[in-house]
Amino acid sequence: MDGLAQHLVWFFPMLWLGMVLAISFLEAPLKFRAPGITVPLGLGIGRIVFKALNTVETVLAALLVLACLVLAPGTAVWVWLGIAVVVLAVQLVVIRPPLTRRSNQVLAAGEDLPRSTVHYYYVGFEVVKVVALIGLAIVAAP
């Protein structure tokens, strides 16, 4: 069991990292450059994609915590995992609600709003999460 947990504590951060890089840093900004994509359409797609990403991230975070409870790794693993989990929690509980309210205004009311600075906070936290996941994978490498 410990061998499997050890490999999962390395594999899950790499899987999580790949998803964040692909969606947050590729799909999200590029979708608005596609022909025919309007802001409301892009926001609608983004909401679906990020809801799915955040769900998978939450599952991976929970599985990582469980694997670490089985493995009882060193402090460095817990610190990097803790940073990633706290960043995800802040994104879901603090940052996503204002982003959702804003996208609701655009989608439901058809309002044309200026760019939101809240997106920059989300991206900043994504960068911190990327660093934490890389750090976690390095210290947990089998």
Descriptive overview:
The chain has 142 residues and is mostly helical. The chain has one domain. Helices cover 85% and strands 0% of the residues. It contains four helices and no strands. The mean pLDDT is 90.
Helix content, binned percent: over 70%
Strand fraction equals under 5%
Please mark out the parts with pLDDT under 50 across 5 or more consecutive residues, or reply none: none
Major beta sheet, specifics? none
Outline: elongated
Number of discrete helical segments: 4
SSE string, helices as H and strands as E: HHHH
Task: Quickly count the domains.
Answer: 1
Question: Alpha-carbon distance between the termini?
Answer: 14 Å
Structural class: mainly alpha
Average pLDDT: 90
Rg from Cα: 17 Å
Total strands? 0
Topology:
Layout: H1 2-30, H2 39-71, H3 75-109, H4 118-140
Short description:
The chain is mostly helical and 142 residues long. Helix content is 85%, strand content 0%.
Question: What key phrases describe this protein's structure?
Answer:
142 residues; mainly alpha; 85% helix; elongated
